[in-house]
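Input set for joint prediction.
Command: fold jointly, output tokens.
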Amino acid sequence: MLNAHAVITNYVSPNFHQKFQRRGNANAMLWRRRLTKLNFTPSTFKLFSLLHTQDCSFRPVPLTKEAFTYILQSCRSNTNQLQQIHGLLLTTGLSLKNSLVTCLLTNLTLLGNMSYARKLFDEMHKPRTFLWNTLIKGYTKNHIFIEAASVYREMRLVGVLPDSFTFPFVVKACAELPDIWVCSAVHAHVVKFGLEFVAMVRTELMLMYVRFGELDLADFLFGSMVERDLVSWNALIASLVQNGHASKALALFRQMGMAGIKPDAATIVSVLSGCGQLGCLEIGEEIYEVSRKEGIECNIIVDNARLDMCVKCGNVAKAKNMFEEMPKRNVITWSTMILGYAINGESEKALGLFSRMQKEDVEPNYVTFLGVLSACSHAGLVNEGRAYFDYMARSNDKNVQPRKEHYACMVDLFGRSGHLGEAYRFIKSMPIEPDAGVWGALLGACAIHQNIELGEHVADQIFQLAPDSSSYLVLMSNMYAASGRWDCVDKVRLRMRKRGVKKIAAYSSVEFEGEFHIFYGGDRSHPQSSLIFEKLDELLKEMRSMGYIPNTSSVFHDVETEEKEATLTAHSEKLAITFGLLNVNPEFPIRVMKNLRICDDCHTFSKYVSKLTSREIIIRDKIRFHHFKNGLCSCKDFW
DNA sequence: CTAGGGTTAG
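tokens >
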């Protein structure tokens, strides 16, 4: 009689069947080797289930634990199959207590079927730490962070002890929760169970604190780590970059060099990405060159990061060369370049590159379309934008179906070009629930076109979805201020104060001789401060004679006109530009990075300065570049 | 038997 092992093996190779029979007994090692070489397919599974039906000429034989394990490993694509195996497990008399359940549970979590996974888990009698870990890991990997944290709590309540495998996932999940107190509690647990010096646990704790902006704590954990390997350095650098602390990341990178640790490709990727954020192309390029000389691998990810850096520093020409010379290009490469054109105001080139991408048969994804749509948005190409959006909606490809971000792009496109009604109807017709980002795009448009009624309605929607978002509140307050409704401005400000929402401080930075010079509004802390203000005064005088009128509409209402002008004068980008005029070699453009959007007045100011001084000024604000040359801006005043 | 780091967008 054939047993189940033999049938499966036979399916693998007819010859093997004979060999198998000659050997008499199933040698687990032997057929493990055969089976793992195979790609188990649904048909294999069918064969397997055939063994357990009456049409089968083979007598059903209880499968061994090994057989189940192999079958389970092969059925990762389909919950239905797993469910059948689960059923078989229950009927074959194999106990649910063994490692098969772990395997089944792992597979379910990989498929993302967490509700089933949880049910299976609940069937277990007194699950041990290992199984708890598997469940927590599943929730974390499927981004159901709150469940991951509460499963940990449950685990503690029933008295199961966590181990060093439990915490990496619990901590990772907690870092995604909006509550730092939960995180502190978990940190306390880590200490309580004596696991604070386990490298991976500590690394995760560190990342968690970076996420909450507690850099000192992260630094402490890192500094007092017992075994600090390359991965922990990389982890910290990467998370600093991802959470907007690029200059800290760069400092850490230097520290790493001094500690004599050799970076690898992953380090370089994060560092280049950080340089892009800061807008320091020269520093980034130097780091890249050095890494090449030191023989650090340069793969497509490094190339992409470098391309992105170039684009984010506003050097499109250089980026284009880099793009053409890349040995390999993937979707990310193309998307980066398309978006690069878009944010630098070269919409036609962005769209041209997109059609070239299609000609070269590279499949675009949803990010690619964000670039395409924002290219349309920055140039006011309403019809084109609509056409691309329709194309996406008609596409059968799941990767290209419009998402919330695309709707936000379209709303921005309609709204910015003055079609507020259409933007509103567009939101109302969305098949998915609009989020704060979608409404926010419309609020921005309302602010530009001074449509207060609609703005208020939109703000109501936003504040239900994101009550404490500082940028929308500021937008609202500016909108009221521009129309002189100071009572409403006060209300918004009061609301912000009550809920503890802080306005993000605006700052601008300039890279000069390998160093950053950061300016806040009205900042007099810079060593050249008095020189800068002197020069600024002089510039303003000349500009006024050319017809410049300061636009004070968005400044606080409770100050006199003169004071308003003074506040405006000291805007961070004006200080940064003036610093650039005083220091940067006249042959080069002055590059300024701003963390928020440039204000109307500073935009006008920059145009005048470029004309007056015949200098090229490049400002990168939160969402795009402005290239000022000879009194004109590349955005054509459409932003 | 499980585990930490890298590129576009947000």
